[in-house]
Write a structure and sequence with these properties.
Helix content is 22%, strand content 32%. It has 648 residues and is of the alpha+beta class. It has 5 domains: 1-27; 31-164, Agglutinin, subunit A; 313-391; 397-441, no CATH class; 442-634, Orthogonal Bundle (Transferase(Phosphotransferase), domain 1), CATH 1.10.510.10. Strands 1, 4, 5, 6, 7 and 8 form a 6-stranded mixed beta sheet that branches. The protein has a 6-stranded antiparallel beta sheet with strand order 30-32-31-34-29-33, with helices on one face. The chain has a 6-stranded mixed beta sheet with strand order 35-39-40-38-37-36, sandwiched between helices. The radius of gyration is 29 Å and the shape is globular. The chain crosses the membrane at residues 7-29, 406-426.
Length: 648
């Protein structure tokens, strides 16, 4: 009886707490804007499940202006999924109002502006119908006419934000054209990092060829290639596992849209032309397109300068010039034009045969500075300059291609003659080949723990066969960690010390350095390198690459700013930051990661060392499972014996 009474008390407390929170939220958040109502900077309009919210707010890189933005509640607060007034910034503290008047017009006004309202929608004929503005859980802001009978159902869509995207494509948002309304759907990049106004690049759907294209000034820089088996040719295959594409082609419209298996997918077209899913990684890198065609989807859009070879690229490097940069020599040139962006600087330097590098002039990434001196890279110490330097290919590369064209027909003839001999040899070797392949597959399932694979050469071969991992140089790691300084040390794990690093282009990384006294060695290093490169899930830590230098073995991961779960669980002060909502999200994320490992990943994996210190937390306190050094792959068997003691 006592337990029953206590249970009732707890239930009453929970219900009262929930009601209290709902009262507080209702005072700040509304679900719609109706005719004759206004919406100011202190109000928030959220979707039914609170997945998206509409609010007047500054942007992360433009804190001096106010914008009407839609943001996902699951992503960092700095980035907006939609911006209503991207070309018309409003000064902060200027009394902004969003108004839906009785005629059905939707406008933004401000006291501190020039007095001209920003019209989002104006009906051809004024209406006195039951009109309201609502935000859907898809992130679509809809102005619609509702049934006056009180059922709350929408009769007609008058205007919607999905018809006017900014630089973000969300699931369900369309690219293409409507033949009924002549409405074009396209995503346009921002002008620069801290200026959200219309930029140079546009993401469009090309219905004739059935492919996505990124254009600049009407010229096609990049194409996705045609869609085959729900995969675009020039989009990384590991990215497309998460997407389902929808193509519509009829008399009413020609359109493309996508759905995502991740919680929040957000395709962002950046000012440099790169298309990235903020949650999952790069989709296209148009900034690497130089006018010559490549296998990565870059198109031929200009005549190649005679001084540039296919394969020449710009690369951000730190270093110095072999003669002083002063106003008295011709080592550099400046163009203080705020209408020029980084991509404009790159175009000029690419076409100018004397230019060896460039940077933007102003802090807001506008204007240009071009360099003409001799460049000396410095990979160990910061040299004070970080410049986009032209890296040239081998001068003999062009002649080599000519000889390849001449030798190709002769080689083809020889190949045909040899093919018959090869087929006979293959028949005789079939049994031996099958046995060898079986041994190779078993070796992979056992993580290739043979001591034969402990050499530097075999590790590097493993990396080359990996899943787009980077091979970091020891010098770059020394530079990123300030020579493994104590200020950069994050902690100590079973593998060894962990350091924070900063790459020259600003990317933060975490470096796990194998310690000789850790009890783990080449087997665990190779195990984690081989295994985690095969895994792709939002609740598994992302491996960026590795570094092998002499006896040094290092793994490079994405940086997790909130450390590990044990930092919060076992500290009385930090524990207070874990409310029940965060705890539930962490538990759910860990469960999703384990479910993927045990059931849905290409390889069936048991972690064998799961503990709080191996659960890392990102900026939004999302959990990511790490440290796969002790993990093991299983095939279809349900019972496996082992003699090895694992766990730390």
């Amino acid at each position: 009886m006592m337990f029953h009474v206590e249970g009732v008390k707890i239930a009453i407390i929970v219900i009262l707490s929930w009601l209290y929170m709902q009262i507080g939220v209702y005072a700040l958040v509304r679900d719609s804007l109706r005719s004759g109502e206004t919406f100011d900077h202190s109000t928030t309009l959220c979707s039914p499940m609170h997945t998206f919210c509409l609010k007047f707010a500054p942007l992360q890189f433009d804190p001096t202006h106010t914008y009407l933005v839609i943001r996902s509640t699951r992503t960092p607060t700095g980035y907006a999924d939609w911006i209503a007034n991207r070309n018309y910034p409003i000064d902060n503290n200027s009394g902004v109002l969003l108004t839906l008047n009785h005629s059905g017009a939707l406008t933004i006004t401000s006291q501190g502006g020039n007095g001209n309202p920003i019209t989002l929608y104006s009906p051809v004929l004024a209406t006195n119908k039951n009109v309201a503005l609502t935000l859907l859980d898809s992130g679509n802001l809809v102005l619609g006419e509702y049934d006056a009978s009180g059922t709350g159902s929408m009769k007609h869509v008058m205007w919607q934000s999905f018809d006017h995207p900014s630089d973000v494509l969300l699931p369900g948002m369309k690219l293409g054209v409507s033949h009924k309304t002549n409405q074009s759907w396209l995503v346009v990049s921002s002008f620069s990092t801290n200026n959200p106004s219309l930029g140079s690049f546009a993401l469009e759907w090309e219905p004739k060829n059935g492919e996505l294209v990124i254009k600049r000034g009407g010229k096609i820089y990049w194409t996705s290639g045609v869609l085959k088996n729900n995969k675009f040719e020039n989009v990384p295959r590991h990215m497309q596992i998460m997407y389902e594409y929808k193509i519509v082609s009829n008399k009413d419209e020609e359109s493309f849209s996508y759905a995502s298996h991740s919680d929040h997918s957000q395709w962002v077209l950046f000012s440099n032309g790169n298309l990235q899913d903020i949650e999952n990684g790069d989709i296209a890198q148009a900034q690497n397109c130089y006018g010559y065609k490549t296998k990565e989807g870059c198109e031929m859009w200009e005549d190649q300068p005679s001084c540039r070879l296919s394969g020449d690229v710009f690369e951000v490097q730190s270093g110095y010039f072999d003669r002083p940069l002063s106003q008295d020599n011709d080592s550099f040139a400046e163009e203080k034009n705020i209408t020029l962006t980084e991509i404009d600087c790159k175009d000029f330097c690419w076409s100018n045969c004397s230019c060896v590098g460039f940077t933007t002039y102003f802090p807001n990434q506008t204007g240009c500075k071009y360099y003409y001196g001799g460049w000396v890279p410095n990979f160990v110490k910061y040299a004070g300059l970080s410049v986009n330097i032209l890296v040239k290919t081998n001068p003999d590369h062009k002649d080599m291609k000519k000889w390849i064209k001449i030798g190709a027909p002769l080689g083809t003839t020889s190949l045909i003659l040899c093919l018959g001999i090869f087929c006979l040899w293959m028949r005789r070797r079939k049994a031996a080949h099958q046995e060898k392949r079986s041994k190779t597959e078993n070796s992979m399932l056992n993580f290739m723990v043979s001591e034969r694979c402990n050499s530097l050469v075999e590790h590097q071969n493993e990396l080359k066969n990996g899943n787009s991992l980077r091979n970091f140089t020891y010098a770059s790691i020394m530079q990123a960690t300030n020579e493994f300084s104590m200020e950069n040390k994050l902690g100590e794990g079973g593998f060894g010390p962990v350091y924070k690093g900063l790459l020259p282009h600003g990317e933060e990384i975490a470096i796990k350095r194998l310690s000789k006294g850790s009890g783990q060695g080449n087997t665990e290093f190779k195990n984690e390198l081989t295994l985690i490169s095969e895994l792709q899930h939002m609740n598994l830590v992302q491996l960026l690459g590795c570094c092998i230098h002499g006896d040094e073995r290092m793994l490079i991961y994405e940086y997790m700013p909130n450390k590990s779960l044990d930092y919060f669980l076992f500290d009385s002060t930090q524990r207070e930051k874990l409310d029940w909502r965060k705890r539930f999200n962490i538990i759910d994320g860990i469960a999703q990661g384990l479910l993927y490992l045990h059931k849905y990943s290409r390889l069936r994996i048991v972690h064998r060392d799961l503990k709080a210190s191996n659960i890392l937390l990102d900026t939004n306190m999302n959990p990511k499972i790490s440290d796969f050094g002790m993990a093991r792959i299983f095939t279809q068997e349900s019972d496996v014996n082992t003699k090895r003691i694992v766990g730390t």
